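Retry 2 of 3 after timeout on previous attempt. Resubmitting structure tokens to design endpoint.
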């Protein structure tokens, strides 16, 4: 053997990264299940189950292909690699560029050589070239440039369907008595059951742990979810946890499937006339726009970006995030329970319910970021840092988003069906039963009035604040709500 190929748990692809050029005769493959990864934090068991079982299945698949493979349990990745070098000699170790700053530094210091990370459609260097030319980092500009560069839904420089963006058509509230696709269930095998037993859990059938399973999920989405995906992508229907969402982000993020495969399947369905343009554009935007933009910004903004707290938000993580059982806020309770069950909820509950609550209560961004990292199945570092610090809680003073995503109960009432069964009233703000979101939305604007007065995109909201006739009462109510949230009583 001439070299060791180290495969990280988010690089489970035979066609990409260091394995693309692997040679059975001369390469020896190592995967390390590190104790640091599995213990020490409140990781969601479903998340650990998915990551570990996928890696073990992948190792088996490489063995079946004829590779010599070691799947090791070790304290840390580095101690695992040391163990392998003791056994096989100090062969050079090669891996794809890791997907976080910490792992990149750790492996580089150990002497691992990196090959290019090609798990994205945009290289880090190309993204940097784009970012350096921008005055502001508007995702829409990046996305349109991607459409042209990758030649997706574009002919002669013009967008398919005559529009770059179908946001207006894709903001429908949840329809009444709608029938949503049944989510696909993934059957369990010996490896899954073994991992579940080691983690002390019962394996659910929610997430696939093999490439075959991930491909079945893609097919299921194309056949059952894609056509209606766009119009209801921002709606939240309490009766269906998956709605029309693709549920592909975990597999894209651990590389069981590639963005090219998803785009290819979506465009084929469109070419056959099986999906409307609004939906096709919406999923293309998520894959070649948002996903690439967030990864690019993670590397472009640098390691210190994670620590930003420009709104000086210092409240401890609210008890409702870790124990929703006492909460009377129907939306928050339902969404946190959903996350507890499956380690997943779609982008709108993440942004407009969970993150919105963290934002308007001035919850510490780093505590909230840690919680999001631990609780979601697809929460890699590169995903969560820009999404939480920049988009969710506006802790970067507007580098990523020009204004904070703060909203009161009226938005949640329009886009979800949670408010009907709730103890609170989304329409009022300073009464005893006023929706905490509505009260705290105005209080948040009031607390940051001076900062936001410098942002012209906030002038409409501040104008609304100035017209409130009950601001003194609202401030009293907000103080009470915050005290109760801190005590886990709301
Ligand atoms: Fe959530 Fe407020 Fe609606 Fe209750 S009334 S479900 S707390 S938004």
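Retry 2 succeeded. Sequence:
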């Amino acid at each position: 053997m001439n070299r060791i190929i180290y495969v990280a748990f988010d690089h489970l692809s035979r066609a990409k990264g260091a394995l693309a050029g692997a040679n059975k005769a001369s390469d020896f493959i190592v995967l390390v299940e590190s104790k640091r990864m599995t213990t020490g934090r409140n990781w969601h068991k479903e998340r650990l189950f998915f990551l570990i079982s996928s890696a073990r299945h992948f190792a088996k698949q490489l063995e079946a292909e004829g590779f010599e493979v070691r799947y090791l349990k070790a304290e840390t990745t580095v101690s695992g690699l040391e163990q392998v070098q003791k056994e096989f000699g100090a062969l050079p170790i090669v891996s794809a560029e890791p997907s976080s700053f910490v792992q990149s530094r750790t492996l580089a210091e150990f002497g691992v050589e990196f090959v290019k990370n090609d798990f994205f459609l945009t290289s880090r260097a190309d993204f940097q070239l784009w970012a350096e030319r921008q005055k502001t980092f508007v995702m829409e500009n990046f996305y349109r440039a991607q459409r042209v560069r990758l030649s997706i839904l574009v002919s002669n420089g013009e967008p398919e369907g005559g529009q770059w963006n179908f946001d207006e058509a894709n903001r429908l509230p949840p329809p009444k008595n709608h029938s949503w696709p049944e989510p696909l269930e993934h059957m369990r095998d010996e490896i899954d059951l073994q991992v579940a037993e080691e983690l002390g859990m019962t394996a659910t059938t929610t997430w696939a742990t093999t490439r075959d399973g991930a491909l079945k999920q893609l097919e299921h989405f194309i056949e059952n979810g894609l056509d209606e995906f766009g119009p209801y992508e921002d709606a939240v229907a309490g009766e269906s946890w998956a709605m029309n969402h693709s549920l592909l982000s975990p597999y894209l993020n651990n590389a069981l499937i590639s963005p090219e495969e998803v785009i290819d399947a979506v465009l084929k369905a469109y070419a056959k006339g099986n999906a409307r343009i609004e939906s096709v554009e919406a999923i293309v935007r998520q894959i070649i726009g948002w996903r690439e933009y967030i990864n690019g910004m993670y590397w472009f903004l640098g390691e210190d970006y994670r620590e930003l707290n420009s709104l000086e938000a210092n409240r401890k993580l609210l008890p409702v995030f870790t124990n929703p059982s006492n909460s009377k806020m129907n939306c928050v309770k339902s969404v946190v329970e959903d996350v507890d069950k499956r380690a997943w909820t779609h982008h709108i509950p993440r942004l407009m319910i969970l993150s919105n609550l963290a934002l308007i209560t001035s919850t510490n961004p780093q505590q909230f970021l840690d919680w999001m990292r631990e609780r979601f199945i697809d929460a890699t570092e590169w995903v969560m840092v820009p999404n939480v610090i920049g988009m969710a809680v506006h802790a970067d003073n507007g580098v990523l988003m020009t204004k904070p995503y703060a909203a009161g109960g009226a938005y949640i009432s329009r886009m979800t069906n949670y408010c009907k069964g709730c103890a609170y009233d989304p329409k009022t703000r300073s009464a005893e039963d006023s929706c905490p979101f509505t009260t705290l939305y105005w209080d948040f604007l009031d607390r940051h009035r001076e900062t936001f007065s410098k942002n012209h995109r906030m002038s409409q909201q501040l104008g609304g604040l100035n017209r409130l006739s009950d601001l003194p009462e609202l401030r009293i109510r907000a103080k009470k709500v915050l005290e109760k949230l801190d005590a886990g009583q709301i």
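Attempt log closed. The two ends are 61 Å apart (CA to CA).
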